[in-house]
UniProtKB/TrEMBL annotation:
Keyword Oxidoreductase: yes
Active site: 3
Domain of life: Eukaryota
Keywords, sorted A to Z: Oxidoreductase
Name of the protein this chain belongs to: Succinate-semialdehyde dehydrogenase, mitochondrial
Any single Pfam family the record assigns to this protein: Aldedh
Pathway entry: Amino-acid degradation; 4-aminobutanoate degradation
Gene Ontology biological process terms from the UniProt entry: gamma-aminobutyric acid catabolic process
Amino acid sequence: SLELGGNAPFIVFDDADLEKAATAAVGSAFRNAGQTCICANRILVQDGVYDKFAELLASKVKALKLGRGTEEGVTCGPLITPAALDKVHRHVEDAVSKGATAVTGGMSPVDLSDPSCAGGYFFAPTVLRDVTPDMLCYREETFGPIAPLFRFREEADAVAMANDTEYGLAAYFYTADVGRTWRVAEALEYG
């Protein structure tokens, strides 16, 4: 079979080490500007830690340096084509028009008048909160620097949301509960 994309969930349970989970989420969602098929595309966060995790993740994402990969200190580069940039814009605009909020990012550096990104297909690393399953960034692989945050209440809800994709290439989750580790690993449809 061919590997033709992914829509990987990244699940954060309320007993997780949030610092470690946020650091891992940044690495997974923003690696290569979000342009790998195993990037975290949908970050599912349990209600009890949702707000705290959103703040922590946003602070880490704000610290990313956007620019050309040949420049020192750059941690997030350009998108591959104008079409890729358009898709990221479309996903963010769709989410915001349906009630999501950009905690950080949400625009191209052209909008930010950032000279280090002139002439490239750059999009500011973005964290979206209050994202829902009716938004494009839930159904489609964005393939760009976006971390959409979805809420869930119970373990079963997280598993159902995680498995609600045609592209189960990879899945990630953070918990301190060993029993949950085994249950969730068995229940997720990925690989």
